[in-house]
Amino acid sequence: MGPWRCLLLLPLLAPALRAQQQQFMEYVERRLSLLEERISQWHDQSSRYSTELRDFKNQVLGMLEAAEKEREAMRAEAESAAVRVDRLEREVDYLETQNPAPPCVEVDETLMDKQVATAKQRKNEKYTKLTDCSDTIASVRAMKILKRFGSSSGLWTKDAAGSSEKIYVFDGTANDTVYVFPRMREFTLFSATRKAARIKLPYPWVGTGHLVYDGHLYYIRQQGLSFQVIKFNLANKTVVDSSVFPAEEQIPVFGLSPSTYIEVSADEEGLWAIYATKEDEKNMCLAKLDPASLDIEQMWDTPCPRENAEGAFVVCGALHVVYNTRLPSRARVQCVFDVSGTLAPEDASLVYFPKRYGSHSSLKYSPRERQIYAWDDGYQIIYRMEMKKKLEV
User: Fold this and answer.
1) Rounded Cα–Cα distance for residues 39 and 35 (Å)
2) Which pTM was predicted?
3) Which of 302, 306, 216, 300 is nearest to 266 (CA)?
4) CATH number of 131-389: 2.30.40.10, 1.10.10.10, 3.30.565.10, 2.40.128.630?
5) What does DSSP assign to residue 20?
6) Cα angle at 228 between 263 and 245, to 5 degrees?
7) Alpha carbon separation from 3 to 17, 80, 147, 148 (Å, rounded)
8) Model pLDDT for residues 334-369, shown as the tens digit of each residue
């Protein structure tokens, strides 16, 4: 097709091209309008969502502020209740101390002399065992450090005869308030003494030789130059009985624990008392106690020396004495005295305790759990023991 023919067609094609351009522009305008409308809707929705979010945030902040105020009010009420409970406990303790059960603290001199004479007559007699227990300590196989509580010297224990899980804590060597935790968990978790119940004793204790046995607390009271064993009922908070210990001129029973004159211990056979006198000031003495009447059933002179001794306990009728040095080292059971004569002291194994902090101020054997509750320079420790028969030693 020649050029002249193209020129003839241009006037015919121009209107069609203009119509297409017009349609294209209209299409673009429609698409732009739709986009602008959608953007406008998005702005409206975004603004509405922002307003709703701001309103929700303000609502939550208001609720949090109200909850904080309620929490502060509840905490103030709880603290007020704790103060009132502490005041009530002090008032109850005061009333109990003002009206205690009348203990027999005044001892007839004739009765005292007769008791001492009877005890001396029974010294070193053959002991008749009450049970078939014939175990001794093979080793201390584990230790568990619970926490650090109170002063460097003290005592903590469970009831050696009952099934109670309560923890009894005696802080210090001269005090009159016993802390009671309902279980081991509470004693481990809570460091504040206000979490524990308090038992205020009618007389202060001395040393760390006390014992909880079958719902009663047996603790030592010093009165002048003599020492009393006080039997205190933990349920009704009264003194059931008391007895002057029938030993003359007593001296500290452990060379490394000068505040302890009598160590009351429990084992599978019952109650025992470990003590020392000037008559044989080098070695310890052992006595079997009647838990009901506090009478001395039998007494023994032992070959176990007081020097460098830090504590002792009885297992299956055998006295185990733990020794250390003035400069703390590893504690060890170095002397064993068996009242039944089954195990000679020279045949006993030398048992070492795991390395610890300082010196044990108390060692309480639990015959029910076969473990020892120890107080070591303010740390409360549980020693678990492995046992074996005495004849196998």
Assistant:
1) 6
2) 0.69
3) 216
4) 2.40.128.630
5) H
6) 75
7) 20, 111, 111, 112
8) 999 998 887 766 667 788 888 667 789 999 999 999
